Structure formats: structure tokens, C-alpha cells
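Reopening this one. Same input as before:
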Amino acid sequence: MKRLLIILGLVALLSFPVVAEDTAEEQQPQLSAIPIPAGAAVTTEMNVSREQLAIVLPALAAESGLGIELDMEQLDAALGTLSSIQYAEMEMGQDYSVIDTIAMFEKQVGGKRVLFDISKAPEQGFLLLSMPDDGGFFFAQIKAERDKENNITGAEIKAGRLFGRPDAAQTVKFIVPTLLKLFATTAVIPAVE
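Same output, byte for byte:
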């Protein structure tokens, strides 16, 4: 994951056009679309546009060494109305609450609840929201962190937002041949005697 974030960061630096500050803010949503709970510290964040994804994904496929080449027209169709992706990882101290944190995300982000799970609190919780008017999706996952004595010492939060929506049918059409090729090149098939 860290390697992907570094590559995405470098592409963002190289491909982001030089524009006036107010114009740049209009082009890309700011990370404020992911609320930060009180007491949480952001450890990783990413804000990637559709154009940057179109550069990074083929580069990652080429770097994989598996001979995978992505069809750019199919990739564009699979991205659907997706305009950008935001992602953040946060750390919280011992005084966190899975239930309160999930409720805070839901209240501040809004949208329609698709998946809500606090059944494993205080260990973990998960929330998936769908935004109205093709606004995409928001997710948050909270997971307890423990010390060597198995005491809860805090929690890690992973949260992300898709602006717009990938086209599900086109995504399957795009991914399945790539996965089949990947499995065909990495599977070990025993010799028949």
C-alpha cells in the first residue's frame, strides 16, 4: 500500500498542472471530504484525480513484471463518472469509541447507509455510505490496536471517498481478462505424466 501511495504521490507532483491556487481548489476536492475525529492524527493521505489514475494504473501494471498491458479505452469506460479518490489513515489513542466514531462519520458525511457494522465493537467497526446524485461513496473502517499484553492501546482508522462512480459492468469487463491473464502466468501447473 505504501509503495502505491508513493507512486501516486510522484505522479501527482509530475502531472498536476501549474494553476492559480483558487483554480486548483475548484479542480480537486480537498481532503476535508473525510472528517477527522477529535483526537485522531492523520498518518497517511491521498487525493488522486481520474487523470492521475489513468497514468498510475498502466505504470503499475507494467512494473508488475507480468506482461500485463491495460487497454486505455476499457480503463476509461471502467472509471465511469469517477472524478477523484480521497483516502486517509488515522491513529487514535485509547479513548476512542467505535460506535461514536462511526456515528460521527455518518452524521458529518451524510448520504445513504449501505453497510453499517458495529457488531464487533470495541474491536472494530465499518461504515459504507452512498452519496446522492452520483456523488460516489464514502467508507470508514476502525480497527483496535493492541500491545504485547493484548491490551487495546488505540485504533487505526482507514477512510476513503470516491467522487463519482465506476461503471460496474465495464469494470468487470476490464478486470476479468486481466485477472485471468494474471492467474495464468502465476499459477503453477503440475506436469502430467
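So the earlier flakiness isn't reproducible anymore. For the record, Residues 4-8, 10-30 have pLDDT under 50 and may be disordered.
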